[in-house]
């Protein structure tokens, strides 16, 4: 009998649930307009109801392999409690996994959302042929996921892969983590808006200033649109995003020598605007990368060609975390 699994992507603002078959084909996706700020009790109930409905609908066609849930927080590997969940106020310390299992009467797998996204890219996306992957997700913050030997690497206390808090500038901007000059302060959507607003304040004749004043919802996409239209100041912002990412990825490449680094999250949509600066910085700062840089021409799939360092965009867009969550029960051996 064919198998399917159910994946949940619990975001800071919405909740998405999907039934996916064992080959990665989407059977059905549900988006719940659940207000996550209403708290864990309310959200878990709505989530379980939707999971039950999907399960009932697809049970006649296949066997349920399991349920995986990606959450935007750090999960304690020993207690399965959410240790920290900045985007889920009121959720820290709540026995999320145990409560869902109690309501559904079956085991579920809980995982950090960036790890789930990395798993999704490994299963169906940019890192399909690789067992060792680092993934950076550039969104409101900068998240990270690490897969080593085909398995999620969580570290001693579930806190591995915090690439967003690698130092880019030792005297840089203070960060919410307590440090300063973290990648998150230079490579996230939040950073792009902050830099753009700083620029606008200094130059009221600039296009950025005009856009910031006229767009009711001024965001990183507005800055990207300006850059794409040729605005030099907006392009400068993405050069600096690229340089910051290049510094961080050079450190990762030097430290880990992995074959692939995947960049996802909303800001990765601006790839063409920041990637040239990223690669320039990377070449200068990482001899390991320079020695393993893929050539522009397509190489034959020889063993040698495989020993190249790929830095590439995520392929699944915003869906990586959802597919990765659906994959969790399979890789966890539930
Ligand atoms: Zn930080």
Short summary of the structure?
With 334 residues, the chain is α/β, with parallel strands linked by helices. The chain is 41% helix and 19% strand.
Class by helix and strand content? alpha/beta
* Count of individual beta strands: 12
Mean pLDDT: 91
Oligomer: single chain
Tell me the radius of gyration.
21 Å
The outline comes out as globular
What can be said about the biggest beta sheet? 5 strands, mixed
Counting H and I runs of at least 4 residues, what is the number of helices?
12
Order of SSEs, N→C?
A: EEEHEEEHEHEEEHHHHHEHHHEH
> Poorly predicted ranges (pLDDT <50, ≥5 residues)?
none
Beginning-to-end CA distance, first to last residue: 17 Å
- Helix content range: 40-55%
Strand arrangement, major sheet: 3-2-1-4-7
What are the distinct ligands in this entry? zinc ion
Strand content: 15-25%
What key phrases describe this protein's structure?
single chain, 334 residues, alpha/beta, five-stranded mixed beta sheet, 12 helices, 41% helix, 19% strand, globular
Structure description:
There is one protein chain. With 334 residues, this protein is an alpha/beta fold. The chain is built from twelve helices and twelve strands. It has helices spanning 40-58, 96-104, 113-124, 184-187, 189-202, 207-214, 220-228, 232-256, 271-285, 287-291, 303-306, 320-331; strands at 3-10, 15-21, 26-32, 63-71, 74-75, 82-84, 108-112, 133-138, 142-148, 151-152, 260-264, 310-313. A five-stranded mixed beta sheet has the order 3-2-1-4-7. Strands 10-9-8-11-12 form a five-stranded mixed beta sheet, with helices on one face. α5 packs across α6 and α7 packs across α8 (232-256). The radius of gyration is 21 Å and the shape is globular. The model has no long low-confidence stretch (mean pLDDT 91). The site of zinc ion (ZN) has 6 residues, from loops.
